[in-house]
Amino acid sequence: MTKKIEEHIKDNLNNTKNYVIALSGGVDSAVLAKIASENTEKLRSVFVRHNQEHSEDLEKAANSIAKKLKIKHKVLDSPLELGSSETKMREVRYELLFKELKMERFF
What we know:
Layout: H1 2-12, E1 19-22, H2 27-37, E2 43-49, H3 55-69, E3 72-77, H4 86-103
Parallel strand pairs: 1-2, 2-3
């Protein structure tokens, strides 16, 4: 199954496009970042600091992953308070990601 997922990701990358990965510090986004970094140079990652329990640990993990993979990485701050729902965090994360993509030149 892992090889199938890896092949699917590779098949959907286009070296003429720019990519940004929301690097959470967890396994799923780390695997995606690793596969993408091995198959395109037009890649960067962002971590959204949601101010939740364990956020500091996840941020450290995301920073470490990006550094190991040599990916341009940025941390974005969220206005959320401790105890916010997963749904609210997702909404804010997408809003911040889209805003970031519009405001900053990719490379």
